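To start, an entry.
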Amino acid sequence: MKRIGIFLVILSAISACNAGGKKDGESNETKSAIRELVEKTLRNMVFVKGGSFMMGDYIHVPIKKGRSPAYWSRHWDSKPAHKVALDSFHIGKYEVTFREYDIYSKANNIPLIDEKYIGRTEGFAKYRKPDKPVAEVSWQEARDYCHWLGRLTDLPFDLPTEAQWEYAARSRGRYVGFATDTGLADIGRNFPPFERYGHPVGTYPPNPLGIYDMSANVDEWVLDWYAEDYYQHSPERNPKGPESGTKKVTRGGSYRESPEGSTVYNRRPTKPDMRVYTLGFRCAINQSTPIPQAHIPDDAEVEKALAPYLKPPAKQ
C-alpha cells in the first residue's frame, strides 16, 4: 500500500508540472529530476533509534590539569542539562543542497534563490554551487520543502525538532562537544577552517551515526520556537519547544563561526523570516519504524500512467 501511495502521489506532482504549461522537454526533465530527488532523499535518510539522553550543556569533565571544569557553551539558554526521551525517527544524512532546492522551486514555479545573480560573478558562483547547502531560505520556506517531500512520498516529513537535532548530532546522546567522528574539532581534518564560501555537503567525516555537517557548514533551522528559559521546564517526552514565540531556534553553527559557536549545544534565536547565506536546513521523518523500500517509478511507468492525461485536445 505504501509503494502504491508513493507512486500515485509522485504522479500527481508530475501531472501538476505538466499542467503548469511547461514545454515537453522541460517537463520531462522536471519529471526525471523529481523522481531522482525522491529516491536520493529516501536513500539518504538515517534511522535514529529512540531513547533517553541528557539534553543541554553539561560540565566538560576531561580537562587539562590545573584548570577548573567548564561548560561547552558560555550561554545560559543551553542549561540546565535535562532528561529527554525521544521516539525513533529519521533525519537527513546531508543538509538540503542548492541542486535539490532548485528542483523543488522549478517544480512549484517558485523563483530560484538569487536567480538574477546566477552566473554573474565568480564569487557568487563559488557560493551557489549545486552540491553546497542551500541558504537564504526562511523557516517557513524550509518547512514547505520538507512538507512537499511528505506529499510526494506519503511520509511525515518535517523539520527536526530541536531535541531530535541534538540527539542525532550527538549520535544518540553521547557526551561530545561537536558532531564529528571523534566528538572534537580537529580543524582541517574533521572540522572546516574559517571559510568565505562554505563547502559541499559531506566534505568532512560524519559523526558516528553517519550524519554529516551538523557542526560548522550552515546553521540549520529546527521546528521549535525559541525561549531562553525553555530547558528549565521542558517536558521529558518528545519536546517540541514552546507553543508560540517571536523567534525560531537554529542549530549547528556556520562555516564562518569559531568552533565555540558550532558545538552541539549552541542555540540561536532567529527571526523566522530571516534569509542569510549562512543558514540552511535538513529534513526529518517522524516515523518510528524504518522506511520500507519505496518503489520509485521509471520513465516507462510514468509515461504509461500519464498517457490518458497527455492526449492532444480533440479537434473542434
Helices lie at 2-19, 24-43, 98-107, 122-127, 139-153, 162-169, 299-306. The chain has one domain: 2-309. Residues 24-43 form the longest helix (20 residues).
